[in-house]
Fold these 4 entries.
Entry 1:
Amino acid sequence: MSATLATTVDRAEPALPRRPFRLTPWQTWGAILIAPYLLVFLFFVVYPVGYGLWLARHPSSYVHLAADPIFAGTVVNTLIFLIVGINVKMAIALFLSGFFTYERWWIRFLAVLFILPWAVPSIPTILSVRFMLNPEWGIVNQTIFSLTAEDGPNWLNDPRLGLTLAIAVHIWKSLPFWTLILLAGRLSISSDLYEAASVDGATGWQKFRHVTWPSMQTLYVTCTILSMIWTLGDFNSVYLLTGGGPADLTHVLATLGIRYLRLDQVDLSMAAVVCAMPFVLPLVYVLMRRLSK
């Protein structure tokens, strides 16, 4: 037995040397083309995020942030901004997506005007709203005075009105985008399902409940989660309209960091951004799970 094993080992072929790793021409060109993107991503995304987390590494920053009386109100404003803004926005978008499915020439013309708030940059559109709401020479108060002979309210100097108007501007600015997404979802539903429902005598509400909503439920939930992520990072609607005022009472987490930057408190600014992570990371995880199915 031992002799047989020895003979077998002697006859075993020697191991071939490993070939050095070499890229094919296609792989080489792929690496060359992807290198600029990786450099830009590392320089403009990974480095700023990592540097911000490094600045916010001290526990004392979060202690000082929690001790700031503005912080608690900012968290409440952020929750109100998210809950009210997202639910109202997505509900209106779902309704308008059904409205724009009707084939009328005036609806197509209206759809072009409807897209303009989303297509135009945020700075001129939101600043124009701010000028319109000026209590002294804004067109809104001038119209109120011409109709009632009374002065209009000081819109942006009332914290409740200011936050409400910021939510309204956010809805007005982003509503066309989500309406288009949901409209595309409605148009992908087979017309045969609606024809079969009509033959069965279904009403408009029954068609929506048993045909439209089951077909669009996944899309609607995914859009809602994605909208929550984007809304957390939306500082234009608040910062350009109210600047966080009056008396820093309309700040959200996205604008609170800018306030600390203006005060040269970079560590608190980064800490305020990190405080938004508990809101963002679960949403990102749920969104990735839904998209991977």
Entry 2:
Amino acid sequence: MSKALPKLPPAIFLMGPTASGKTGAAVDLISKLPVEIISVDSALVFKDMNIGTAKPDAATLAKAPHHLIDIIEPTSAYSAANFRTDALRLMADITARGKIPLLVGGTMLYFKALQEGLSGLPEANPEVRARLDKRAAFIGWPAMHEKLALIDPITAARLEPNDTQRIQRALEVFELTGEAMSALYAKQTNEVLPYKLLKIALVPSDRKVLHERIAIRFEQMLKEGFVDEVKQLIAKYPSLTPESTSMRCVGYRQALEHLAGEFDLAELRDRGIFATRQLAKRQLTWLRGMDDNVELDCLNPQLNELVFNEINQFIKR
């Protein structure tokens, strides 16, 4: 008689674009199900960056603690590899306590790295990055995007011409390896995640409404003192520049440019909203390319209840 395969412990991905209600749904679950939240957000890892990242406030975090929030200073860097190592350790700890890991966020690359493993991409190289930044300062990032399209059309097709961080990374990978990033991803060896997964994707039935939410939220950030927050960051961390990993988070680069006198507050508002909408567009593109997602309309007034029902049924199966 063959032995039965061991039953995998459950884990939940709660994914969605910015302003889709992920945090609210996750916090609502804390009082209803035995879950612990792991943040999957490349901006929330940074200390002292609260308003511009829409970080949950102290009262929310007291009610629903989030792992992987406020773990490094804005002058440091954090990668998908770092996230995978940290998340796997936390998931094991949470499971050992008899609870269920609930991974919540919008950094889709982190979700992909966790589920599928890493592709063996080279570590960041400061010299190559400095050279690429110098070239981009001369010809502009849209022209750098065109160069990327010649060597790696697959990666270029999923990036906006002003997505400086990802364009730079793709060009850096090519310089360091001589291979396109998309080709390296295709070669990656899948590492099976030892959990039974439920993947919930919060997507808008009407993208215009999501865009309105984004505009309202960015305007609220400005009212709450986002510009002052960036001033304080510069004062506390003098080595920060627009090219720092943390300052590439949506809104922060634009705020730095505003403080440098490049444009007024009204244009900061417009640029910040535009950049956030572009981020949401990329997040939705990632979600469309992922398999086995349970899609829920993030605009549904009963969203929290829908999320709870999906997870509750999943746990009972």
Entry 3:
Amino acid sequence: MNIGLISFAAGVLIGVIYALLKVRSPAPPAIALVGLLGMLLGEQLIATLITHSSAG
């Protein structure tokens, strides 16, 4: 199983538990998470470009 999928599933599970317990999540606002996603995608893009340029 993909590590990203496991991480996502764990996050969803924690979110469900927080909702059932009616506890406010300590997670940052959604806009911060979108920024983090952009950072991760940028990192993956550069890694992919470097791998392809080295292979060629």
Entry 4:
Amino acid sequence: MTDTAHTTHTGRKRAGGFLSTLSLLLSLVFVVALVIFVLQNSNSTTIDFLGWNFDLSQGVALLGAAVVGAVIAFFVSGALRVRRAVR
């Protein structure tokens, strides 16, 4: 015969359920605000960067710049954390 593992369910809720729900709702509000921002700033603008020319709406251009800035900040903070951990 084979042994079967019996697990007991304690009936307790997962810790952080409220915080994860709150963060999900805040993320949803943030995404809706970003969509409204992009839709309201639909004037076309030309962006010149290293010989490339882009025709984008202002909202998309500003959102792209914010995303690029966030990615750079993420990598710099990660590099600093690794450097501190090595010391």
